[in-house]
Design a protein that fits this description.
The chain has 191 residues and is mostly helical. 84% of the residues lie in helices and 0% in strands. The chain is built from seven helices and no strands. Helix 1 runs antiparallel to helix 5, helix 4 runs antiparallel to helix 5 and helix 5 runs antiparallel to helix 7. It is elongated and about 70 Å long. The model has no long low-confidence stretch (mean pLDDT 82).
C-alpha cells in the first residue's frame, strides 16, 4: 500500500518531466520546420533569465530577502524553473557542436529531475508521517508512544531533506557551466 501511494505521488513528477522533454522536442521541431531555428538561440537567453529569477525562492528561504511568501515563491520557482528549462532545451535543440553547452544542458536536466522527484518524495514522506500520527492519536496512544513509533518514519523525512544537499550543488554546477558557455559565446561569437 505504501509503495503504491509513493508511486502515485511520483507520477505527477514523471509526467512533468516527460512533458518538459516532449515539449522541447516539439517546439524545436516546429521552429526548424518553420525556418525559425534561429529563435532558439534567444530562447536560451530568456530561459536563463527565468531560471535566475526563480532563485528568489532560494534567496527568501536563506533569509537574503525579507519579503514574499515562501509558499508563493516556491510555486514561482517551480513554474519559472520548468518554463526556463523548456526554453533552454529548445535553445540547445539537436545541435551537437560543442561540449560545454551539452554538459550544461545535461546538468540542467538532472537538476530538473532532482527537483521534481525530491519535491514529490518529500511531500509523500510528510503526508505519510502526518497520517500515521493522526491514526495513532485516534487509537489513543500517548504522545510519547506516538513519537517512539514514528521515529523511523521521521528519519525518512530527515533523509528526504538531505536531498536538498544534492540538489543545490547540482544547480551550482549547472550555473557554472552556463557561465562558461555564455562567456565563450560572447568571446567567440561571430559578431
Amino acid at each position: 500500500m505504501a509503495l503504491r501511494f509513493t508511486v502515485t505521488r511520483i507520477l505527477p513528477s514523471l509526467a512533468l518531466f516527460l512533458a518538459l522533454i516532449a515539449g522541447a522536442i516539439a517546439c524545436d521541431l516546429a521552429l526548424h520546420r518553420a525556418g525559425l531555428a534561429w529563435v532558439g538561440r534567444y530562447g536560451g537567453i530568456a530561459g536563463s533569465i527565468l531560471l535566475a529569477v526563480s532563485f528568489l525562492y532560494s534567496a527568501r528561504k536563506r533569509k537574503l530577502l525579507s519579503r514574499g511568501s515562501p509558499k508563493v515563491l516556491l510555486k514561482v520557482h517551480e513554474t519559472l524553473g520548468w518554463v526556463g528549462s523548456l526554453l533552454v532545451l529548445v535553445h540547445g535543440g539537436i545541435h551537437f557542436n560543442a561540449l560545454v553547452p551539452w554538459l550544461a544542458l545535461l546538468a540542467m536536466v538532472v537538476v530538473v529531475a532532482s527537483g521534481l522527484t525530491g519535491r514529490f518524495l518529500l511531500e509523500d514522506a510528510r503526508a505519510s508521517l502526518r497520517g500515521r500520527a493522526e491514526g495513532m492519536k485516534k487509537a489513543g496512544l500517548s504522545p510519547a508512544e506516538i513519537e517512539r513509533e514514528l521515529l523511523g518514519v521521521s528519519l525518512l523525512v530527515d533523509t528526504m531533506k538531505q536531498w536538498r544537499k544534492v540538489h543545490l550543488p547540482l544547480t551550482m554546477f549547472f550555473f557554472g557551466l552556463v557561465l562558461v558557455h555564455v562567456v565563450a559565446t560572447l568571446l567567440f561569437w561571430r559578431w
